[in-house]
Automatic annotation (TrEMBL):
Residues 7-75 form the HTH gntR-type domain. PROSITE patterns: HTH_GNTR. One of its GO terms (molecular function) is DNA-binding transcription factor activity. Pfam families: GntR, UTRA. SMART domains: HTH_GNTR, UTRA. InterPro entries: Bact_HTH_transcr_reg, Chorismate_lyase_/UTRA_dom_sf, His_ut_repres, Tscrpt_reg_HTH_GntR, UTRA, WH-like_DNA-bd_sf, WH_DNA-bd_sf. This is Histidine utilization repressor. Keywords: DNA-binding, Transcription, Transcription regulation. It comes from the Bacteria.
Length: 243
């Protein structure tokens, strides 16, 4: 329980710092509050703060300078930026005052499908971890998730009990990333998906497909199917913010 609370605090601190950077509130070159300032602000240990700052540095969002502190990175022109933050569904559902629940429907270690370049990139010379998951709010289905994770890029993923921990939440808390690609589309639920979401076939859904990398290493690929009336996408931009 203690570890779970620590992971949640770690993710909350990271999400808030990332939000200030991505919104433009903290511009490139801005000095991040010192570790002791963040410790006081969040009432946490130096280890927790250091873990967050290390993850942000590994993702390329900040630069850590010895004796000077941490600063928002000045991005190179060739770096890709994500237009949408990667959400933790559990945290967002809870923040909106609803009770979150999660079910692992299927877990399988398998080979990449022939002809699927995305799967081949994730698997490399090894296998893929494939999972189907269902997210619920107040005991009602909210989203269906089909996720692939690369054990080559994230070896420890094979030891995680995803029957109790949603893979997206675990990845956000434990694995840094440097690049992501989103694809958003509208879709009418097919019979199998509709049955799991407890709606009629053809019901309008919002589909988010996301690929995530750390450097050149593909980390995960996910297809999330949200009920159309249950999820909004909001992007906030500041003047002069080209991200």
């Amino acid at each position: 329980m203690k570890a779970s609370k620590s992971a949640t605090l770690n993710q909350r601190i990271r999400s808030e710092l990332e939000g200030r950077i991505l919104s433009g509130e903290w511009a490139p070159g801005f000095r991040i509050p010192y570790e002791h300032e963040l410790m006081e602000q969040y009432g946490c240990s130096r280890m927790t703060v250091n873990k967050v700052l290390t993850a942000l540095a590994e993702s390329g969002m900040i630069e850590r300078r010895r004796r000077a502190g941490s600063f928002v990175a000045r991005q190179s022109p060739h770096l890709e930026q994500v237009a949408l933050a990667i959400p933790d569904i559990a945290m967002q559902v809870t923040a909106m005052g609803h009770q979150y629940a999660y079910r692992l429907l299927r877990r399988q270690l398998r080979s990449a499908r022939d002809g699927d370049d995305g799967e081949q990139e994730l698997a490399g010379e090894a296998s893929l971890l494939a999972m189907d998951c269902l997210h619920l709010a107040d005991d009602r289905p909210l989203a269906l998730e089909h996720r692939l994770i690369s054990p080559t890029g994230v070896p420890e993923v094979l030891e995680v009990d995803f029957a109790v921990t949603a893979p997206g939440s675990w990845l956000l808390q434990n694995v840094s990333w440097t690049r992501a690609q989103h694809r958003i589309s509208a879709w009418g639920a097919d019979a199998a998906s509709a049955r799991l979401l407890d709606v009629k076939a053809g019901t309008a859904c919002l589909v988010i497909e996301r690929h995530t990398w750390r450097g050149d290493q593909a980390i995960t690929r996910v297809r999330q199917i949200f009920l159309g009336d249950a999820w909004d996408l909001v992007a906030r931009f500041a003047p002069g913010n080209n991200r």
